[in-house]
Amino acid sequence: xxxxxxxxxxxxxxxxxxxxxxxxxxxxxxxxxxxxxxxxxxxxxxxxxxxxxxxxxxxxxxxxxxxxxxxxxxxxxxxxxxxxxxxxxxxxxxxxxxxxxxxxxxxxxxxxxxxxxxxxxxxxxxxxxxxxxxxxxxxxxxxxxxxxxxxxxxxxxxxxxxxxxxxxxxxxxxxxxxxxx
Length: 181
Known about the structure:
single chain, two-stranded antiparallel ribbon, 7 helices, elongated
């Protein structure tokens, strides 16, 4: 019984250490120690105008839930460039991690592949949202129109108060077309 208890403590502390290590790796990947060589190796400043600050805007790092696996994602308008940057980030990280942390057990599970379809917003969802917004707008306009109880014309006044005569009315006056004489 006590033996299984010590194994579970070891596992939970081991898991906590691994998670801290993943967080540390993520910070290192986003640091200038990795960004600068990636930008230099791929000549990103000259070819695409991407510097170290731009690197931090297009590269994101996430960890697979409760594992020691790190996912590196790169988002640009060019899918080939995104894959090249992701692969270079991993290569530079593997080269630099030993000199930074004296750790040799970092390996690449899979290399980045060029995406075949666009990621990000899906035009179908945008179109569906626009149609739903238009339908809701039309319904709101119709509800407001049919529930409006304001009297707008002289004929409506005659219908409502048919027993009483109309003594006078105020003519429409357009002040914008008046000329000073």
